């Protein structure tokens, strides 16, 4: 092959590549995963179209279990009270302060739950097996909390005042609901799975409180911001 035919072959190959993808940056953009949707400007969950739980995730498993569950149990919870830390801690290094804080939180939670039934360090004030009349409301609240996965999250410390428990396939699920932060937490067989997760705006707190009140179950008396 002479130099002219060689350069002709190279030029033809380059032309084919250019027709398939006009630039390297364009190719990279085409192959890259889609960017997450931006958070709503006002921070309101109702302004974004929710997604669905990732297939195979604990959240998806809990949602499927909820659909098959025969009974639902509604709990009234009282979270661990907030405790201030000594001012002297502010003089410590971040690493030392972090280690002390972890132990401080664990100790506070142990003391809070000593002699009480707790769900994930939240005292159980009472519970009721949901009857036929209230099942649609409680089921809907739990289903929407699990099923609606927004593409954003809030910087907010969840305070869990309610939990919905159900069983399926030999496992017991407990779904903690934070209406304050529109967040949930899933426990499977008493163990937390995945931490706090965002959901869309929950508007049924008063209705769930009413279910508990009709069953003479105490509510958390603490007023949170």
Radius of gyration: 26 Å
List the uncertain runs. 1-48
Shape: globular
Strand order of the largest sheet: 2-3-1-4-5-6-7
Major β-sheet profile: 7 strands, antiparallel
The chain-level mean pLDDT equals: 80
Give an account of the 3D structure.
With 225 residues, the protein is an alpha+beta fold. 36% of the residues lie in helices and 20% in strands. It has a seven-stranded antiparallel β-sheet with strand order 2-3-1-4-5-6-7. A hairpin with a 2-residue loop joins β6 (183-188) and β7. α3 (58-68) packs antiparallel against α5. The longest helix has 20 residues, at 94-113. The relative contact order is 0.17. The model is unreliable at 1-48 (pLDDT under 50).
What's the structural blueprint in terms of helices and strands?
Layout: H1 3-20, H2 24-31, H3 58-68, E1 73-78, H4 94-113, E2 118-119, E3 122-129, H5 135-147, E4 162-168, E5 171-178, E6 183-188, E7 191-198, H6 205-214
Antiparallel strand pairs: 1-3, 1-4, 2-3, 4-5, 5-6, 6-7
Attribute tags:
225 residues; alpha+beta; 6 helices; globular
Quick summary:
The protein has 225 residues and is an alpha+beta fold. The chain has helices at 3-20, 24-31, 58-68, 94-113, 135-147, 205-214, and strands at 73-78, 118-119, 122-129, 162-168, 171-178, 183-188, 191-198.
